[in-house]
Specification:
With about 80 residues, this protein is mainly α. About 85% of the residues lie in helices and about 0% in strands.
């Protein structure tokens, strides 16, 4: 059940990050980036000492991770 919730949060985060970053990768690309970004957000949160509590906290952290990933991908020219 936690995996399904993680994937749903990642999908929502990808959509939000795509809107914030005005991404041209399309919906499916942004959704995949959101799931990967959720991992990145969790990792970065642990590095700086932040913990996502609750659904909203997890969504914010995952969205921030997806935004970072989109920013890196845009800088690389992909």
């Amino acid at each position: 059940m936690k995996l399904i919730l993680f994937l749903l949060i990642g999908l929502a985060a990808g959509w939000l990050a795509g809107e914030v970053m005005n991404s041209k990768r399309g919906l499916l690309g942004n959704l995949v980036i959101g799931v990967v970004g959720a991992f990145i957000g969790g990792f970065l949160g642990n590095v700086v000492g932040l913990a996502a509590t609750g659904l909203i906290g997890a969504l914010i952290l995952a969205t921030l991770g997806a935004i970072v990933l989109l920013w890196v991908l845009n800088r690389m020219g992909s």
